[in-house]
Design brief:
nine-stranded mixed sheet; Protein-Tyrosine Phosphatase, Chain A; 20 helices; single chain; 535 residues; UDP-N-acetylmuramoyl-L-alanine:D-glutamate ligase; six-stranded mixed sheet
Length: 535
């Protein structure tokens, strides 16, 4: 074997190793971005510096080979290849993902298409006679790894759409063969997952209930739930409906055909894709529009966008569709189901409910936070409407447990953690700070901020910083770039800079918390949001 052929083999190996590593990273981010091309392109635009860092070894390696090393020094080039390989392993694989790449059938199909593209690309490059040009072409192909992922997706898209249509048709068939199933849709900018869990618990006191698990609130998540979990004995299907674009809720409704629906709260979330708050409201009310005339829409009257949209529709539309409102209001006439006398402590919450028939009943729950009363009240309203005895509902409310990562209390030694790490938003963040303020001790906020707020991100982050400054003894910001406006909101209100720490990641942030001197007080730590790997 000649020096040239040894080098040719070595450079191909380093290309394949590094290219595959970077491609898997891009594919992982593409999966986290829900296989949305536009979202993936925005991610690439926002992370191009990180992408260059991930490829600096390959670029330097190619430069040294093409410019600095004469062709005759083949042994040195082989040594350089092994050194570069060690650097790549250390750099590309040093990070652990919070949510690893899931090797679904779609990912397998994309990898198969990607492999075919790489084989064709390498074969074409090897037809170039000059080794310097080969190295440059391979380096260029390596830098275009994100393009290979998107190209593989584009090639597979007709097949993926056909497969998805088959899955959807199969889910519709299963629902048609289950005519007695009562489907209840739950949507909203926030509160929908907690409401879904509480509703499932209360309705299960009388019915066999299926719900969409965890965050299976997309079209394909709902379809998967139906195909894998729906059984003949199920009487009620509680279906959470998430949305990032106008029409997403309607798409799910067209599949499951809900009989009743709950709209929890509406606010500025996913504005990068929705663009305007009006689009958010319109999308959430796609659930109400999809209900039959015999159906009931349960609406949170405490949410201003919900209340405004309801009044607009009552003025401009004639509909036989029934609306039942719920909320925490001072006027009994304003809501069908109203919570009053809400008392919140670190041990739980108590409140009374006035029902549409003017009767009242006291409730207690281990859940904390006044905003959680709205979510529980929604579940109470639906359960009462569907005939669950009120005495059973009261027992069920006492037994409700916190939803993981949504104001979940975790006690450990001298530290109390309030885990609110899932999918933060402006209203939820304020509510979490209100909960933190109830506790005695050294109050510490750990947060990377919020995402998908569009052009309102800086405004809402500054406001969040000011709110945190009024409650917290210390603030730990995770990630320097994204938390700049939170930091500005803190300092603009005169918050002491020596009580603010900026950490590069959550682990460093928790280490900062552990090092804080609480002067003998209990540390009460609010974990407000934990961004996924694509942020």
């Amino acid at each position: 074997m000649t020096d040239m052929s040894v080098w040719e083999i070595s450079i191909i190996f380093i290309f394949l190793f590094s290219h595959c590593s970077c491609t898997l990273h891009c594919l992982h981010m593409f999966q986290l971005n829900s296989y949305k091309v536009g979202v993936q392109l925005r991610w690439l635009a926002g992370n191009w510096k990180d992408w260059l860092k991930r490829n600096v070894v390959v670029m330097c390696f190619t430069f040294i080979y093409c410019v600095a090393l004469p062709q005759k020094l083949a042994l040195y080039k082989i040594a350089l290849w092994y050194s570069a390989q060690v650097c790549l392993i250390k750099y590309l694989w040093r990070e652990k993902s919070k949510k690893p790449l899931v090797c679904t059938n779609r990912v397998k199909r994309m990898l198969a298409t990607y492999a075919a593209l790489i084989v064709a690309t390498v074969a074409a490059i090897l037809r170039v006679d000059d080794l310097d040009k080969q190295a440059l072409c391979l380096a260029a192909a390596h830098m275009l790894a994100p393009g290979f992922v998107l190209l593989a997706n584009a090639i597979n898209m007709p097949l993926e759409r056909a497969i998805n249509r088959w899955y959807i048709r199969d889910a519709k068939r299963m629902l048609r063969e289950h005519p007695g199933l009562n489907v209840i849709g739950v949507t909203g900018s926030y509160g929908k997952t907690s409401t879904k869990f509480y509703l499932h618990k209360l309705l299960s006191l009388r019915y066999n209930v299926l719900m969409t698990p965890e965050n299976y609130n997309t079209t394909l998540g709902v379809v998967r739930t139906i195909r894998e979990n729906l059984k003949p004995f199920h009487e009620v299907f509680v279906c959470e409906m998430g949305a990032r674009n106008v029409g997403d809720v309607k798409e799910i409704c067209d599949i499951v055909r809900p009989e009743h629906g709950v709209i929890t709260s509406i606010g500025p979330q996913h504005l990068e894709s929705f663009k305007t708050p009006d689009n958010v409201t319109r999308t959430k009310f796609e659930l109400a529009d999809a209900l039959p005339d015999s159906g009931v829409a349960f609406l949170n009257r405490n949410s201003e966008p919900v209340r405004v949209e309801l009044e607009r529709r009552r003025k401009n539309e004639k509909s036989a569709r029934k609306v039942v409102t719920y909320g925490l209001s001072d006027s009994f006439e304003s809501c069908g189901y109203q919570a009053r006398d809400v008392r919140v402590s670190g041990e739980g919450t108590s409140f009374s409910v006035r029902f549409p028939d003017a009767s009242e009943m006291a409730f207690e729950t281990r859940l904390i936070g006044a905003h959680n009363v709205e979510n529980v009240l929604a579940a109470i309203a639906v359960a009462d409407f569907m005939g669950v005895p009120r005495g059973d509902i009261a027992v069920g409310v006492r037994r409700l447990e916190g939803v993981p990562h949504r104001l979940q209390l975790i006690r450990g030694g001298s530290t109390l953690i309030i885990d609110d790490a899932y999918n933060s938003n402006a209203a939820g963040a304020k509510a979490a700070l209100d909960v933190l303020a109830m506790f005695d001790g050294c109050k510490i906020l750990v947060t990377p901020g919020m995402v998908e707020l569009g052009n309102r991100e800086d405004e809402l982050h500054e406001k969040f910083g000011a709110q945190a400054g009024a409650v917290c003894n210390f603030v730990v910001l995770v990630g320097k770039r994204r938390t700049k406006s939170i930091l500005r909101g803190l300092t603009d209100t005169g918050y002491p800079e020596n009580r603010i720490f900026v950490a590069k990641d959550l682990n460093e942030g928790l280490a900062r918390v552990a090092a804080i001197d609480a002067s003998g007080m209990q540390k009460v730590v609010l974990l407000e949001n934990d961004l996924p790997d694509n942020y």
